[in-house]
């Protein structure tokens, strides 16, 4: 009971962290993105003559930093989105890796099935403690209910099977939301980054066409700045959107693998109990 209480308390603590994650990560990344734009990209050493916003130096890392700075005021927004995307991806990678457990989920499920077939429920529970992760948590709570139902004489077989099935559903309901948490941010970034890229592109093209619209000879410098701004914003936004799409697909695939392992383990436990108590 004490161990179960500790696990519940730990889940509540993790839930609080995950629920507050977006609240502090998003504003922090926005602040960092603005600071990078001002003090790193906008460093005077990145521009000829030390004039911020002038022509970027001829070569080296400073040339590219100065070039990105020329993308205008949409750049710090896009940098913030990139930072948010990377931060959420790291957090999800850590969380989902921990949820996957220490070994292969499929090998773990096979071992549990073998131990249950031999009637060794206690060894199966110990295996859950070794494996850890979401699959192991669901299986362990189900096996505890399994043992309880084996000694429950007041219920018929169908009622005991229903109780085990209910335990699987409740345990799964506690585990899965933690895996899917914050993925909505990644999914949103995939589309929002493209929209901000389009905004930066439009603003850059407005500058470019304004340079063409001047009376007399077109201002070639202003024209070049406008086109550069448009292309820099396009590259940043589309690149971050592509990255977010890849992250989302990768994490949802891993979550599906965990979910499948939970379903497979639950089915095996119920089938084993039903076969032994016909």
TrEMBL record:
Residues 156-262 form the MotA/TolQ/ExbB proton channel domain. Keywords: Cell membrane, Membrane, Protein transport, Transmembrane, Transmembrane helix, Transport. Pfam families: MotA_ExbB. It comes from the Bacteria. InterPro entries: ExbB/TolQ_transport, MotA_ExbB_proton_chnl. GO terms for cellular component: plasma membrane. The chain crosses the membrane at residues 21-41, 61-84, 183-210, 230-251. It is a multi-pass membrane protein. It is found in: Cell membrane; Membrane. One of its GO terms (biological process) is protein import. Belongs to the exbB/tolQ family. PANTHER family: BIOPOLYMER TRANSPORT PROTEIN EXBB, PROTEIN TOLQ. This is Biopolymer transport protein. The lineage of its organism: Bacteria, Pseudomonadati, Bacteroidota, Sphingobacteriia, Sphingobacteriales.
């Amino acid at each position: 009971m004490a161990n179960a209480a500790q696990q519940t308390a730990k889940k509540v603590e993790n839930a609080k962290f995950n629920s507050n994650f977006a609240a502090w990560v998003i504003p922090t990344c926005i602040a960092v993105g603005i600071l990078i734009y001002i003090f790193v990209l906008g460093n005077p050493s990145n521009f000829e003559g030390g004039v911020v916003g002038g022509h970027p130096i001829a070569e080296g890392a400073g040339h590219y930093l100065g070039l990105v700075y020329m993308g205008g005021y949409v750049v710090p927004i896009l940098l913030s989105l990139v930072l948010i995307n990377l931060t959420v991806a790291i957090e999800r990678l850590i969380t989902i890796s921990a949820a996957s457990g220490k070994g292969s989920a499929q090998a773990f499920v096979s071992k549990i099935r073998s131990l249950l077939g031999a009637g060794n429920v206690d060894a199966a529970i110990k295996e859950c403690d070794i494996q850890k992760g979401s699959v192991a948590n669901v299986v362990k709570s189900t096996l505890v209910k399994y043992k309880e139902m084996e000694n429950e004489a007041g219920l018929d077989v169908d009622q005991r099977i229903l109780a085990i099935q209910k335990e699987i559903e409740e345990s799964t309901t506690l585990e899965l939301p933690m895996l899917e948490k914050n993925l909505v941010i990644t999914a949103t970034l995939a589309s929002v980054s493209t929209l901000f890229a389009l905004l930066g592109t439009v603003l850059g093209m407005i500058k470019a066409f304004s340079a063409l619209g001047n009376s007399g000879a077109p201002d070639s410098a202003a024209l070049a700045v406008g086109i550069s701004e448009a292309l820099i914003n396009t590259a940043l936004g589309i690149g971050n959107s592509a990255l977010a799409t890849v992250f989302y697909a990768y994490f949802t695939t891993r979550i599906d693998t965990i979910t499948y392992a939970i379903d497979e383990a639950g089915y095996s436990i119920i089938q084993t109990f039903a076969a032994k108590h016909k």
